[in-house]
Each structure stands twice: as C-alpha cells, then as structure tokens.
Structure to design on (1435 residues):
C-alpha cells in the first residue's frame, strides 16, 4: 500500500495556507487605490503601489501595471511600511538566556532559531515584517542577536535579513544583578558597581587576549615556534566588540547606569548603538545625543520593577523631541501584535506628530538596526514590506488586514477566516462520518444474524484502512 | 537411624554446604542445529521457499536450498516456519540501569557543578550499565529483536554506546561492538550550570572542539619536540573524546526536532565527524534535502509525536492530532521515497512490542515492508559497520536468526524460536497461563532457616521479574546463582542442583510468601524434604 | 474707576475659573453631553452643585457663584468605572514590600481590600487621567481571596474614597489543564474535567461548612442550642450565601465557564464572572444564566491555541450580541489603569457598538456593583462623577481636560506630569 500523495486536510489548510499565498505570489503586484503612508513625506490619498519581484517599483496615482500583474484593490484602506520591532525574543528555541556564566558572548541566537514559532504569524497579523530577536538580559554581556524578516513558512536561514549588521546584547541593572530573584544565586555581581566592574574586567581580558595573539603573530615564524594562545570563542567576540564589529545594544533603565556605560564605552572605544528600554533616558537626552546613542523603548509599560518606576509614558516623545533617535519595541510576543497602538500613544503623551509617531515603528528602528537602506519607508527600490490597515494606523479602531514581506502576502485576514471556516466544516463532516460508522457498528452488534446473511460490500469499503486523502 | 533418614539428613547438610552444580545446560551439547524445510528470507528480496539453515558454534554455517543434514546436528522441523535475520534495535536505552542522580541542593546556590552534572560525561559507557536479564532478553525475542545498540542518552556528551547480541546475560560474551559510538545531545539542564540554554550547548560544543584541536596539536608538538614549549595538561575527558573527534569512531547526534537535525549536520560537516542522526523528534522527513545532501544515515524513532517546537503543535489539538495520526507516522515512508538511509531506534518506544507495532503502522502509512525489514537488519548493521557479521542469513555471519509462524512484520505472525549467537530460545507462552499472575514481590534478601535436622541457615537473594525468579544462594561456604525460578500467586518455586555423593541431585525449593515471611519445603524428591521458614532482611 | 472695577471683577472671575476647585457650583457650557441613558445632547450645558449633577439642558443660566467652564468642541461623559483592579494594593510587583494583594492560604474570604488600600498610590492619579473616576479594588490569591471595595479615584483617606465596601466576594475558580496528548483529547469531555470537578467540589464543601455554621448559629439564637465558635471566614460568607453579596468568579476557558455556571446555579449564589476569554464560545449559556461578565485586559493573546488570533478582541462583541452584559477592567496591572478606554476601543474596532462600549464603561459596572442609583450616568440627582474630554474618550489621542469626582474638580497632576514638567525644562 504505497501512499505517494501525502496530503492531509486540516493541517494543510490551517498551517500551510499562508505560505500558499506566498508561493502563489506573482512577479508583479499592483496595490490599487489606497491611502499610502510612505514615511518619507506627505501621504498619498487614493494612490497605488507597484511591486516587481520583492521590491517596490513605483508609488503614485493611476499606475499602469503589466497584463499579468496581480491587482489587489485596497478600496481606500491604508498602506504603511511593515512595522519593525527592534527588541524581541520570539523564534528562539531552548532558552533566551545563558545563565551558566556571567559573560556569555560566545552564544548566538542564530544557532537556535525556530522558524515555526507561531508568534511569527501573530506578529504578521499585527503588521510586523522585520524583527530583531536576541539574547535576554541576565548577563552584563550576553550573546549575539539577529535581524529576521518574517517570511513565514521559510526555513530559519531563509529568514535572516541579509546585510543586517550583527548585534551583541548587554544588560545593566536589576536583571544581571538578579535582584528580582528571591532565591538569587550566590553569584557576583550584586550591585550596579559590580556589573560595570565585570564588564571592565572582561574588556581587559579581551585586550590581553588580543595582545597574546598579536605577539604570537609576530613570533610565529621564529626558529623556535611558540605555542599559539588557546582559542577562546567568548573573548573573540568581546575582542570584536572592542574592534567595533558589532552593534552593541545595551539593556538599561536608570539614568546613571546609562551615563556610566556611555563613558565606559568611550574609554574603550566601543560603539554603543542603542539602549534597550532606557526608561529614564528622558533625563539624559543631551548625553545620548553627544554619544550618538539611540533608545529603543516602551510606549507606556512601566512600574513592574523599581528601575522601571521613575518614568512616564511621555518619555519616548520627550526624548524624540529633544533629538534622540527613538524606536518603540515590544520585548513581548503579545505587545508585538499591537505596536501601532503604542505609536499612537506618543501623540497624546508628549505630543509627537502623526508622522513622528509612525517613524518610531518604521524608519527609526530600521536605522538602529542598520537596515534602513532596504526597509522602514515605502520608496521605489526598497523592499516591498507593506502592512495594510482598515483605517489609519493611528486610529483607535484600526487593525491590520494584510501583511506583505518581499512582495509576498504572508498574512491575509479574510483568507485566515475562510480557512478556519473550511477546517471547521471538514471537522464536522468527519465527525458525522464517524457517528454514522459508529451507528452502523452498533446496529451490526445488535443483530448479528441478519448481517451475516447479506454481507454489504459498501460496509466493507468503509472499514478498509484509510491512508491519507 | 534408618538409612533413608540418614541419607536425607546428609543430603540436607550437603545442600547447605555444597555449591550448586552448573545452573544452565551445557552449551557445548547444543551448538549444532539444523532447521529443515523452512522458508528462508536471506535478506529482503532474496527468499528461498524451502531450505535448510545449519548453525554451528554460534555462526551460520549454511543457509540455502535443501541439503543433507550433518549427523551431529539437532534438528528443528521448519516446515510452516519463516526464518529471517534477527532485528537490530539501532539506538535504545531501556536495558540500561543508570545510577540514580542525586542533586546536591547547596550547589544550586553556588552554581559549582561538576562536568558530569552538567552533562559533559563522555567517559560514561553503556557497557558498564547494561543490564541483560533473561526476562528482558525474552521480551526482545518475542518481537524478533536479537541485537540492541545501547547508549546513555542524557546530557551533552551522553556517553559511549555498545552493540549487544541478545543471547545471554553475560555482557562479556554478548557484546559485539564496545564503545563504538558517542552520543551528543542538545538538551541543556536549566539548573546545573553552564551551559543551561540550547545556544549555550552549541557554543560549548564549538569551544570544546576548538580545545580538542588545540590539545591534539599541543600534545603532538610536545611529543615530537619536548623542548622549548610547555607540556600539555592531561585531560581525561579529551582522551575519551579523541577517537570520536578525529573521525576514528562514530558520533550520533540526539535530535529533538528538525532544527536539531540541521544543527547536527552543520556541526558534523564542519568538524568532519563520522556522524549519525538519531531522529528523536520524528521530523527527519521535514529536512530531506539536507539529509540527502549530507548523506548522513538516520536512526528513526517511532513515537509519532509532534515536537512542541513544530508548527503542528501550536495550533490547537485538532491540527496536532491529525499530524500525529497521519503525518509523523509517514516519516519512514517519505525517507524511503527520497532514498535516505535509515534504521530504527526504540528510544521513544522502549517496549519491544510497541516498537514493532509502530513499525507496522509506518508500513500502513506507506513504508514498504521490504524497506522496513532492511532497516531492521542489513541496513542497521551497515550503519555500524558490522554488516559482515550481522543482518542477513548467510554463511559466516553470527547466528542471530528468528523462526516465526508467518512472515515477518505481519500482525498475525508469531515468533516460535530465536537463535542468538547460535543459542536456541523457545518462545514460551506467557507464564500466566501456567500459573496465576504473581501477587507478591519477593525481590530482596531472605534469611532461611531449616527446621529439623540441624536448623541450619542460609540466605536467598532473589530477583523477581514479573513471574520469573532468579538469584543467589548464599551460605557461609560461598554463593552461587540460579535462574529458572517462578512466582505464581504468592508461591515461589526454584530448582538448585548440587553434585553430591557422586550424583547430581536436584533440589526443589517451594514456599509461600506472606508479607515479609516465607515458609515452605526443600525437597529432595524421593529422598525426603525439610521444612523451612524465612524472613526478609531489610 | 468703573473700568478698573470691571477689570478687577473679570480677572477675579477668571481666577475663579482657574482655581475652580474651591467652588461648589460649576457650569459646563456648550459641550457634547453623553448621558449614557438616553440620546446624546449635541450641544448643551451641565450644572454641578453640592457634589451632584443638578441639571442637564440645552442652555442653563449660570448661577451667581458658579465657576463656568466653556467646553465648546469638547465632550462630557460619566466617569468610567474600572471593574477589577489592584489599585492601591500593589505599587511595584517585583518588590514584595509594596504588594498587598495576595495573601497566603486558600480560604481568606474575610479579608477586605480596604484594610490595605493605599490612597496615595501613584497609580490612582496616573490611572484616572483618561476618565476613570471609580474602580473596584480586588484582593487575589487562593480560592477565596477576600472582599472587594468600590472606591473613587481620589481622596485623602480610604473612607473618603469609599463608594461601597465589601462590594463583592472574590472566588478563583480552578483551571482545567490542557490535554497533554491525543489520547486525552478523546477522553476530554469526561475524564479531564474530573480534575476540575474535584476541585470545585472542594469549594462546594467549604460553602457547605459555612452554611452549617450559620444553621447552628440560627438554632442557637432561636432555640438556645450551643452556638458554634466564632469563625470570621464563615461569617464573611454569609451575605454571599444569602444572595445579598455577589461573588466575582474568575474563569477563562469555555469548559470552566460551563462548570462555573452550574456551580453558581447549584449553590444559588449571585455571581459576576471575571475574565471569560473564551466566553464567546458559551455566550448563550451566559446570557441564559443572566451572569454579567467583567472582561480582563484586552492586551492579551487568545486563551487557547484553538482560538482565532483576534478572539480576545472579538469576544466582547460576541458576548453582547448574545445578550450578555459586560464591562471592562484593567485587571492585574495597576500601573496600566489609564488603558481602560483603550481596551474598549479594541473591542469597538472588532465589532462592539460604540454606545455599548460606553455603557460597559459606565452604567453596566455601576449596576453590577449596585451603585447605579448614584453613579454610571449623567442624570440629575446622581453624583457628579464625570469628565470633559477633547474628543472620543476611547481614542488615546483625546485629552481629558477636567475630571470631577463628587462634584469637585480633581487635580490632574500626577507622578508622570511631575517628572515630565521637570525634565522638559532641562536645558538642551
């Protein structure tokens, strides 16, 4: 009994349907008659977007597309660049923190991606197209993160954002000193001072390591060949941090720890790119600008820890108004689905304009992640990462209806519910079929003689083992 | 004193003094067998409808069309029976008896865990912990399994495997390959130190391999020169790992889902290891292109469960049940279609009858019976490089042969005889049909006192496995083992044989157990019997 | 001279409007008034006097001592009621010294939220900025957590804030665990429930004991038999058993909701369900049983993986459609109290009628807690708990300019404003 065709019902419909749209994506797609928010300038009312392959080809009014183009009628809906979440931990398998050691720069989230994390789909349903997923905040210097495009249905390597700079995660404050854990390990450090001291210590270790290798390189062609230093993967990453190879993203909340680390980085020549959370960043905007550090923060999540207490929802807007590069992030699979709601809050709290508010979830995180060449705005030549909303994205009653990445539709709300309905119907059919079979069985058990007289060929068929449909 | 009484007392005394005679039948009397007129599946695709198998001294001497039977062979009437090569379970840990892990609570605070506690224990050898028992072997035989690759499976370097022939309880004789395979697992314990995350495990492996390469370089430089450089520190862990790291021996990656398989292929090819994949997650079919490209053999498990990381596990019970019913059981069938090499592992289905039953489900889902048989025999042997000795019924190979009523892998077939290393095993029907199911557990030490005579004492150390009993008889003069005991209801029966007065005497011990006391008779057949009582020693 | 007098009078009047809080009579003019009961008035006036709403009309003449607020272009709503919070009980979750919501032990029905409520919690002031004027404060933990209180969002002491003490009991229903594997899926309807049913039976047994206690007490009073020893816990349960105090029962999954409905009917107690993430699956049963529902925060994902991705947001509309009375709450996060109207906005985005949403924020919770005779709508005679906002109160971009509690203008200053105003001033 060889089953060559392996097609299964519920699971094909519910699970793979989305990538089915993606696979069926045409080379030319015309999004027709929508309100287009490009982020680069004025919105275009009743405009079109022409997509060729994975790129935006043209934006304007009354664009003519080729005869084979797939036309999607927006009917006045809103199109904006796909939302970019610069602080996330989804799609990671086997733990987001390596707590076995204080410093764990040798670990890499790229090694443990799970492309089937359903949270990816849920993020797409919230208009998110690019995320930066990373190590947690248990270590002063943790492991490396990675930027992903949410190409749902692809493998993990296919999701990696090509060209995005690599990042390393640092953490200061309560998490690395483990003050929230009542049964805290007897592990150093227990104060912010110790946290900084441990960073300095490993920088010096890395410098020694680099020196040992430099010395070896000078002497390795000698007559008496020296032993090379032992390869230490952790110190290699830290050495690369010192060499400026990575974008450093430092989790911090309180003003003084941020100031102190900026000074430390200047001292060691380390390029600190972004503070994660930075809820007290509004107090040190001058210094943030001086050191060129951006802040990827929350709109209004606060008071869950002491270090998150001395802040206000106006913080993001205040920092932005004073000239700091600000992005809004989720740090949470659930919040990721509603980042557009968070953006709207910066209008009320701190008075950002609509366009400034939308920048915090599009071009600003793109700049922070070093991918603004490809995403973050809707412009010809950039990737066709687009989120379609039923109302203006900052409207209180808006929601995402369709999300495209690289010109392929990965989330379609209408189709999602169609598929669920189909799956329900199939399930009902199967249940009724089973009920009928059970009834027949009961009947035959009650009257064995009658059945023995006339074997029903049909009932034999239904009892034959079924392979896949 | 009457003569008979005197003999009886003498026997009783002798019973208490003398060691027992050889407890199993003399193997050399039964080392030549001929199975006549049976159907022989030499290997899948080569069947002889009516032939003869001759087994001599543990090896197959002849397997082919009907020939004359050697004069010294014991004959088994084989008409109506099908002979096939005994199955090989390519990865399991059910016969291991690992010591209990005791966790020191104070270490949780200091984080000071040993390497063994952190799962870095390449020196753990399955051979040392393999526990072959008669009852256990019998269970495997009933499903046609005659060889098992045993491997510890916990931690990062899980330990070294051994391949055993299921022919006897003596490990030394049963082992075919010792320490031939190192297990590498991806699961990190979250409470025992570095590494405690999956990314930590991968980084750890990379650092470990870098350290191993350095160790090799440093050791060879020192040994070649011994001048001008410091000498390397001896590292036992590295010495254990060397043959596996340098490709002399094989490594098997324990993969809990399709992502782990990709990770394993990456590590295996980067460090040029001779590696296998154990598909614990059952998802090999989802990464067929990568498996084909790397050519790595896969040991398939048969649990048919969707791993929690899989898309099928995250969308509710309907999707998951359908996937576990239709998709995951078709794993082997898809690999067959794609031409990926595989064998079967009992890891997720440790009970042999479930292992076999799920292979039959795989066949229902599209795996060809021929391929299933190959995976259980000749292909499995090839994976471990023992195909010259195992896997088919051909002259020169180890005599691991199953004789069953009915063809292999059919539900209605029943195994009748099993040869393992040329030793014949009869498949008895369940003991429960002869007696009742045991209602007591007599495992442990018992102090027995005989009444009458001189009230002598001896100790019985009993091991009960369901209805079979084995153990030791310990007297002040020594101890010896016996097998073949039975437990039925709350009664035990065992036979001990001694050589006394120029004769071999069988002594039957039967007793009734009540809680921690036992009472019964030691019988010398016609010569009389003595009553005894006993109590359990805590 | 006349001119000077005029200037002085006008400026004094101006001063009065700014300082306004001191006056007892306030006239809000030219606003869009949304009474909740009855149609909205597109442009009208509302007079507050002596802590109450004195009059609502098209044009009201300002009494002589009235402070006049020109609310042209703005909207007036009854104060929102947050139907389930930890306000005043928890300041910072991760600092145990600041958290007083969850007591040890399984049965603590005699505990009262008011015993631990801190009126100076920063979260009151930050949570009322979007129009919340009252909230239910609930203890958590165990099966019987204690008794809630409805309090106003401003006051010097708990007594001053108190609207209704011992408003409801809190009962936390057991949660049916998810089936682990396929086999359990088949047994689901019968056996997996057994675990939950056993735990529910334990709750029933406890109530039985409480009833027994009261029987003995009654017998002792009426017939002189020996009275049982005083038991504060059973005493606290009496109003629940006598159907005088409702119990808020927290329950999420459809299975558990069905069990809870049966429980409530068997025990003959008045109940309000809290949570009901899968309420939409059993909406008709809830409607039939006439059980009101307090929805938890809408910043959550689906209750179970079988649910649609937006089920937490479509839930409200589905319940209302089936005839269930709902209200909103900010639940376990006192720091997120200002989000109350945003949750209502999500429900409206996914199908709930805007008017129904406003009802769910005002008159519904007032009815559930039995305070609707003086709260929950803009009607003459009711307490003047209301706010004036620049636009749709569910729109996060609207700004509440004035908030009145018991007819007094509340200081809109808070922990956030203090920091914002200070740090805005740091020189660049």
């Amino acid at each position: 009994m060889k089953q060559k065709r392996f097609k299964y019902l519920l699971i094909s419909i519910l699970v793979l349907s989305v990538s089915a749209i993606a696979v069926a994506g045409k080379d030319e797609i015309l999004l027709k008659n929508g309100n287009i928010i490009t982020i680069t300038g004025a919105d275009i009312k009743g405009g079109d977007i022409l997509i060729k392959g994975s790129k935006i080809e043209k934006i304007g009014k009354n664009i003519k597309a080729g005869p084979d183009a797939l036309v999607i009628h927006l009917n006045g809906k809103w199109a904006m660049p796909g939302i970019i979440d610069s602080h996330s931990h989804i799609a990671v398998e086997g733990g987001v923190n390596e707590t076995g050691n204080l410093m764990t720069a040798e670990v890499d989230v790229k090694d443990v991606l799970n492309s089937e994390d359903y949270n990816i789909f849920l993020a797409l349903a919230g208009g998110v197209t690019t995320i930066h997923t990373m190590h947690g905040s248990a270590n002063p210097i943790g492991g490396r993160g990675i930027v992903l495009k949410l190409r749902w249905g692809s493998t993990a390597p296919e999701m990696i954002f090509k060209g995005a700079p690599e990042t390393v995660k640092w953490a200061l404050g309560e998490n690395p000193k483990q003050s929230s854990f009542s049964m805290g390990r007897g592990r150093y450090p227990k104060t912010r001072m110790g946290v900084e001291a441990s960073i300095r210590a490993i920088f010096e270790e890395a410098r020694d390591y680099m020196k040992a290798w430099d010395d070896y390189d000078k002497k390795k062609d000698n007559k008496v060949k020296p032993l090379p230093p032992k390869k230490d993967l952790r110190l290699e990453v830290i050495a690369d941090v010192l060499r400026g190879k990575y974008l450093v993203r430092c989790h911090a909340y309180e003003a003084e720890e941020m100031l102190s680390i900026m000074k430390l980085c200047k001292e060691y020549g380390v390029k600190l790119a972004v503070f994660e959370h930075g809820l007290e960043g509004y107090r040190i905007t001058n210094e943030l600008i001086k050191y060129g550090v951006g802040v990827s923060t929350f709109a209004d999540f606060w008071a869950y820890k002491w270090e998150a207490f001395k802040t206000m929802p106006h913080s993001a807007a205040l920092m932005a108004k004073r000239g700091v590069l600000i992005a809004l992030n989720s740090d949470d699979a659930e919040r990721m689905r509603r980042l557009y709601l968070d953006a709207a809050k910066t209008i009320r709290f701190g008075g950002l304009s609509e366009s400034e508010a939308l920048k915090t979830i599009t071009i600003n995180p793109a700049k922070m992640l070093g991918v603004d060449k490809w995403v973050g705005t809707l412009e010809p030549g950039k990737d066709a990462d687009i989120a379609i909303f039923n109302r203006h994205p900052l409207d209180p009653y808006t929601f995402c209806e369709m999300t495209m990445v690289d010109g392929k539709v990965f989330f379609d709300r209408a189709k999602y519910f169609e598929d669920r309905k189909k799956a329900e119907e199939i399930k009902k059919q199967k249940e009724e079929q089973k009920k009928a079979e059970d009834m027949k069985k009961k009947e035959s058990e009650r009257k064995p003689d009658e059945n023995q007289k006339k074997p029903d060929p049909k009932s034999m068929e239904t009892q034959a083992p079924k392979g896949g449909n | 004193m009457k003569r008979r009484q005197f003999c009886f007392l003498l026997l009783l005394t002798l019973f208490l003094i003398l060691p027992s005679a050889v407890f199993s039948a003399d193997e050399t009397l039964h080392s030549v067998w001929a199975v006549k007129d049976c159907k022989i599946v030499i290997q899948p695709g080569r069947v002889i409808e009516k032939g003869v198998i001759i087994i001599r001294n543990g090896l197959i001497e002849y397997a082919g069309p009907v020939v004359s039977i050697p004069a010294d062979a014991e004959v088994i009437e084989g008409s109506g029976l099908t002979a096939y090569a005994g199955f090989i379970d390519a990865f399991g840990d059910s016969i291991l008896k690992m010591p209990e892990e005791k966790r020191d609570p104070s270490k949780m605070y200091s984080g000071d865990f040993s390497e063994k506690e952190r799962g870095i224990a390449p020196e753990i050898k399955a051979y040392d912990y393999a526990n072959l028992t008669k009852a256990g072997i019998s269970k495997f035989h009933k499903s046609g399994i005659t060889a098992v690759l045993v491997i510890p499976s916990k931690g990062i370097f899980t330990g070294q495997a051994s391949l055993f022939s299921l022919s006897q309880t003596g490990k030394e004789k049963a082992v075919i390959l010792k320490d031939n395979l190192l297990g590498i697992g991806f699961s990190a314990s979250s409470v025992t130190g570095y590494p405690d995350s999956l990314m930590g495990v991968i980084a750890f492996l990379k650092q470990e391999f870098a350290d191993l390469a350095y160790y090799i370089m440093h050791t060879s430089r020192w040994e070649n020169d011994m001048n001008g450089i410091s000498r390397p520190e001896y590292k036992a862990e590295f010495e254990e790992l060397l043959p596996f790291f340098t490709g002399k021996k094989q490594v098997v990656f324990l993969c809990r889902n399709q992502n782990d398989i990709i990770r394993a292929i990456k590590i295996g090819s980067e460090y040029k290891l001779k590696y296998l994949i154990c598909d614990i997650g059952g998802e090999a079919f989802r990464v067929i292109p990568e498996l084909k490209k790397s050519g790595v053999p896969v040991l398939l498990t048969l649990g048919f469960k969707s791993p929690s990381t899989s898309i099928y596990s995250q969308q509710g019970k309907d999707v998951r049940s359908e996937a576990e019913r239709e998709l995951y059981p078709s794993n082997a069938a898809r690999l067959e279609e794609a031409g990926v090499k595989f064998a079967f592992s009992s890891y997720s289905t440790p009970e042999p009858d479930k292992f076999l039953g799920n292979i039959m489900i795989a066949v229902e889902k599209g795996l060809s019976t021929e391929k299933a048989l190959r995976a259980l025999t000749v292909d499995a042997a090839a994976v471990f490089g023992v195909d010259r000795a195992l896997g088919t019924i051909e002259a020169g190979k180890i005599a691991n042969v199953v004789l069953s009523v009915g063809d292999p892998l059919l539900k209605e077939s029943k195994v009748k005889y099993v040869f393992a290393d040329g030793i014949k095993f009869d498949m008895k029907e369940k003991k429960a049909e002869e007696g009742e199911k045991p209602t007591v557990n007599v495992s442990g030490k018992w102090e027995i006192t005989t009444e009458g005579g001189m009230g002598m004492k001896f100790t019985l150390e009993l091991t009960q496995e369901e209805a079979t009993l084995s153990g030791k008889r310990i007297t002040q003069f020594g101890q010896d083992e016996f097998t073949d005991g039975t437990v039925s209801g709350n009664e035990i029966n065992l036979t001990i044989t001694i050589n006394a007065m120029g004769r071999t005497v069988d002594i039957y011990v039967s007793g009734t157990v009540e809680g921690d006391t036992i009472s019964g008779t030691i019988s010398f057949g016609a010569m009389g019997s003595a009553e005894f009582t006993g109590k359990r020693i805590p | 001279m006349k001119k000077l007098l005029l200037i002085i009078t006008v400026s004094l009047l101006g001063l009065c409007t700014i300082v306004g809080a001191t006056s007892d009579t306030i006239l809000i003019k030219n606003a869009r008034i949304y009474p909740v009961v009855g149609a909205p008035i597109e442009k009208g006036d509302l007079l507050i006097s002596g802590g109450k709403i004195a009059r609502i009309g098209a044009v009201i003449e300002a009494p002589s001592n009235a402070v006049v607020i020109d609310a042209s272009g703005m909207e007036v709503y009854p104060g929102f009621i947050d139907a389930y919070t930890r306000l005043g009980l928890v300041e910072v979750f991760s600092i145990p010294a600041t958290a007083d919501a969850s007591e040890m032990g399984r049965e603590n029905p005699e505990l009262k939220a008011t015993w631990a409520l801190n009126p100076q919690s920063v979260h009151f002031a930050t949570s009322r900025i979007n129009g919340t004027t009252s909230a239910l404060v609930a203890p958590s933990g165990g099966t019987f957590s204690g008794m809630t209180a409805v309090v106003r969002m401003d006051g010097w002491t708990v007594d001053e804030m108190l609207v209704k003490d011992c408003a409801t009991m809190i009962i936390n229903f057991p949660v049916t665990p998810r089936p682990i594997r396929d086999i359990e899926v088949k047994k689901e309807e019968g056996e997996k429930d057994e675990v939950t049913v056993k735990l529910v039976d334990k709750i029933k047994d406890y109530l039985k004991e409480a009833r027994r206690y009261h029987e003995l007490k009654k017998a002792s009073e009426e017939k002189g038999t020996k009275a049982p020893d005083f038991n504060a816990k059973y005493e606290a349960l009496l109003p629940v058993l006598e159907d005088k105090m409702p119990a808020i029962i927290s329950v999420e999954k459809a299975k558990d909701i069905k069990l809870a409905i049966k429980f409530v009917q068997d025990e003959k107690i008045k109940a309000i369900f809290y949570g009901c993430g899968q309420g939409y699956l059993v909406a008709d049963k809830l409607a039939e049983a006439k059980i009101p529902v307090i929805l938890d925060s809408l910043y959550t994902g689906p209750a179970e993986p079988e649910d649609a991705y937006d089920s937490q947001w479509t839930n409200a509309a589905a319940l209302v459609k089936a005839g269930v009375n709902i209200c909103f709450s900010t639940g376990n996060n006192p720091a997120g109290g200002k989000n109350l109207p945003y949750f209502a906005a999500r429900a409206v985005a996914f199908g709930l009628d805007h008017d129904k949403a406003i009802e769910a924020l005002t008159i519904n919770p007032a009815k559930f807690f039995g305070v609707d005779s003086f709260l929950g709508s803009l009607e003459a005679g009711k307490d003047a708990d209301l706010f004036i906002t620049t636009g749709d109160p569910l729109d996060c971009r609207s700004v509440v300019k004035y908030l009145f509690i018991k007819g007094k203008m509340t200081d809109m200053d808070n922990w956030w404003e203090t920091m914002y105003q200070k740090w805005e001033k740091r020189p660049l």
